[in-house]
Amino acid sequence: MIEIEEARRLVLEHVSPLGSESVELRAALGRALAEDVTSPEDVPAFDSSAMDGFALRAADTRGARRDSPVTLPIVDESRAGHPAGSGLGAGQAIAISTGGVIPTGADAVVRVEETRSEHGLVQILSEVEPHRDIRHAGEDIRGGDTVLESGVRLGPAELGVLASSARSAVICHRRPTVWVLATGDELIEPGQPMRPGAVRNSNAYSIPALAERAGAEVTGVTVVPDDPDVTRAAIAQTLECDVTVICGGVSVGVHDHVKRALIDLGIEEIFWRVALKPGKPTWFGRHEGGLVFGLPGNPVSAMVTFTLLVRPALMALSGRRPKRRRTTATLDRDYEKSPGRAHAVRCRLELREDGWHAQPAEQHGSHILTSMLGADALAIIPTASGNVRAGERVEIELLDDG
Ligand code: AMP
Ligand code: MG
Fold first, then answer.
1. pLDDT in tens, 361-390
2. What distance in angstroms lies between residue 253's CA and the mean position of ligand 2's atoms?
3. Whole-angstrom Cα distance, residue 207 to residue 194?
4. Are residue 290 and residue 198 in the same domain, yes or no?
5. Which residues line ligand 1 (CB under 6 A)?
6. Could you identify the atom of ligand 1 that is nearest to the CA of residue 201?
7. How far is the CA of 187 from the centre of ligand 1 (A)?
8. Whether pTM exceeds 0.85
9. Residues 225 and 296 in one domain
10. Contact 247, 282 (CB under 8 A)
11. What are the residues facing 328 on neighbouring strands?
12. Are 363 and 254 in the same domain?
């Protein structure tokens, strides 16, 4: 058995980013950039007004007060998208709206609230300093600057910045394709009538959802009975995908056929069995065209091992840097454990005055799938650790997808 950290290292060692393709901006949410992006132009592109009001020379407002306003002629208008036709001379004002181009000759904007205007004249009711309410060209982005680097995952803010930078499409890494196989004679689908000894196929729903959340494209989900030939044929069919995820059948029982099938198909085993609870029988291997994970069938074990091992692989394949979303928290309940395997304990998190607290699920069984409901993090209790008392600090890995 190897440590979970070693398993993760081995997985990442066998992954390199997939090729790239051009993606329209609207389709690029969640994708990883495969290029550094520079902006060809300044953003904003010109000096503009931050307010509705009047563009003028600050010097012309000197001494202006509510009870002794300065009066200036309004010589033109600058609206958003419609610059003024002329520049501004001394002793003149140009009506301006938010986003309007600052006319040449003006060095400040006085807000409309600080003015009264009628018959082509504006009364300025207070002094303004030069640069007042002017947004300067290039304040957000300088033309030629790199705004986003390769490997960044595109979220809403990134898409907005790309649009500001004149990009309508970007080069992104390809999304990994994933095929999920659920094994077991006992499995029935949620829509089927219950029969004696049957188990509803929850992994066929939770695991593809985790894969999609991690940025993968799920190309197939199949159920495989506990039969060696059918298992081998079913796995063979998935090998055109970047990643095959098999749930169940990977232990040492007489009806577990996955390992044998993988060997028969010539898939190279990188590791089998991890010193982790839940998740001991986890298998990882590779072939020329992709990766294969064999996850334990128990629903919690499958989700936990996916999160700790498959998700980082999918992130790395899609060009993202698999970052560790780890921190520490105070454990809020005694946790019983004997040394020998690390434990991944699903927890709810709560922020209190003294920092983050982790509340372990009440039921630890790897078949208690409802214990994953509302889970925010996995507390990782190291292999050598024994019982952990409430109040001790533990390492946690956040479950939320970032
Ligand atoms: P296995 O890893 O095949 O020995 O399965 C371990 C346990 O997980 C057994 O109780 C199975 O019935 C259960 N199990 C396996 N696959 C699934 C699945 N797709 N959905 C729900 N439970 C499963
Ligand atoms: Mg089974």
1. 988 899 999 999 999 999 999 999 999 999
2. 8
3. 22
4. yes
5. 182-184, 186-187, 199, 201-204, 247-249, 251, 296-299
6. 20
7. 8
8. yes
9. yes
10. no
11. 395
12. no
